[in-house]
Amino acid sequence: MRYIYYPGCSAKGLQKPYDISTRAIMKHLGADLVELEDWNCCGATFYHSVDELQALVLSARNLALAERMGNNLLTICNACYTNLLKTNMYLKKNANLNKTVNEILEKIGLSYHGSVKVRHILEVLVNDVGEQSIKEKVISPLKDFKVAPYYGCQIVRPFHIFDDPEFPTSMDRLISWIGATAVSYPLKTKCCGGMLSFLNKEACLGLIKDLLQSAVKSGAECIATCCPLCQTNLEMFQEDVNKKYNIQLSIPIVPFTQLIGLAFGLSPDEIGLKAMLVPLKKKIT
Fold first, then answer.
1. Which residue among 156, 173, 204, 278 is least enclosed by CB atoms within 10 Å?
2. Residue in 158, 274, 276 with CA at minimum distance from that of residue 224
3. What is the dihedral of CA 235, 239, 245, 247, to 10 degrees?
4. Cβ distance 207 to 260 under 8 Å?
């Protein structure tokens, strides 16, 4: 298996552990990740609201670069996945937009012909790698480990390509394949506030509180995420939530790839586990 890998900006900064664990487990599974050469920001959340055409061009540039290298473009960020997927779909469906975007790309010696398939690491692990191959690599199953699978709001909305938009189950199934228990988590697709943490932190803290309390009430020992910004918000603002609402919440927020790495027998250093603000003590040796 060979994938062109688009890590995105978060994975090169605050969410480096997500990037490290992704590379580690994919290598362990025999998959070849080739980082996209000279990639740029996808436009994130803000830019698509400010100047949609320029934001689409940003993502289209990445698609054009990927087209030169292969046809499977894999990302680990929900926002990147949504932006790249949206751009890909818009360019295929709107001939005038396609023409305009390619005219801009031509100024920097690029063009895009629509052959790239945008993939999320979660979908790749579930659909390409599959249950049998993952179970074969598990040497330290996470028995009696209760995990709240948190998908966030963008991975299955608005483009529900590989899972249900309201009640996704792909991460739940993957969690069970590594021996852990996916607890019933009713807020699995509720927004964490995203970039709102920079604009209206107070409103964001309320959303985070609801997500954390729901996981604890469900009996979870940690929350597994598949989005770098979700992981950052839920982990970094726990102290602020406790102070604002006079409560005591402390629950580890783990990129789901780190849990897979643990089950594969990879060391905490190999999957960046020691960088967590709220330590995951169980199963670490």
1. 173
2. 276
3. 90
4. no
> Pairing mode, if any, of strands 2-6 and 253-255?
unpaired
CA proximity to 282, closest of 221, 203, 219, 223: 221
pLDDT at residue 15, as a whole number? 86
Q: Are 29 and 129 in contact (CB under 8 A)?
A: yes
Q: Helix, strand, coil: what percent of the chain each, to 5?
A: 50, 10, 40
Within 10 angstroms of residue 200's Cβ, the number of other Cβ atoms is 12
**Which candidate, 171, 148, 124, places its Cα nearest to that of 220?**
148
Among 161, 194, 144, 166, which residue's Cα sits nearest to residue 82? 161
Based on the number of CB atoms within 10 Å of its own CB, is 132 exposed (0-12), middle (13-18) or buried (19 or more)? exposed
* pLDDT (tens digit per residue) in 13-25: 878 999 999 999 9
